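Dear colleague,

Following up on Tuesday's group meeting, I ran the structure prediction for the two-component complex that the binding team flagged. I've pasted the input sequences exactly as they went in, so you can double-check that nothing got truncated or mislabelled along the way. The structure tokens for the whole assembly follow below. Feel free to forward this to whoever is handling the docking comparison.

Inputs:
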Amino acid sequence: EDQVTQSPEALRLQEGESSSLNCSYTVSGLRGLFWYRQDPGKGPEFLFTLYSAGEEKEKERLKATLTKKESFLHITAPKPEDSATYLCAVQAGTGGSYIPTFGRGTSLIVHP
Amino acid sequence: NAGVTQTPKFQVLKTGQSMTLQCAQDMNHNSMYWYRQDPGMGLRLIYYSASEGTTDKGEVPNGYNVSRLNKREFSLRLESAAPSQTSVYFCASSAQKGLLKKGYTFGSGTRLTVV
């Protein structure tokens, strides 16, 4: 069974304090790994897709990286507006449905 | 603005009542999905429609039915609501089921309480 585990569950940072969120996965035949941002009371918003180990994607203060077992979402010099829940989802090639499995998310709070 | 529109945004039902959650997308996407999100459980797939005219069960389909009305619209029906169905429901769409270059586009959700 495909598994996606995100850690930590919650993270509190001071403004400017860089850190990383982790998404570890156990799947057969990775097709894609996705990162989303979810603000309170809203639906998830797509951030990045990563396809293969070694790949990196960047957007403003966020950088996503991928290895064969996990992905990291690095947040550099975060600001209060980066506060949100960050979701990871993994799409695998086996099983036929190609429907991504979501992790439970990391709730990030950035204090001014 | 282009995207996924869900109605209603909030709903309170009594146990045993029925209701239909509506979802429409204007991006000409082929695939549409219904998820529920509960604290500590993450997003769980209820049903999906890979293309117009097809629907398939997801991880937690019991107690729900769906209809892909046309390419734009995908509705979720609760025939006899139960307190265990209290949740936030999200509709999502993607250009294709298997190729998710841009991930899913999600609606803003329906917050359902069953008392």
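The radius of gyration of chain B is 13 Å.

Cheers,
M.
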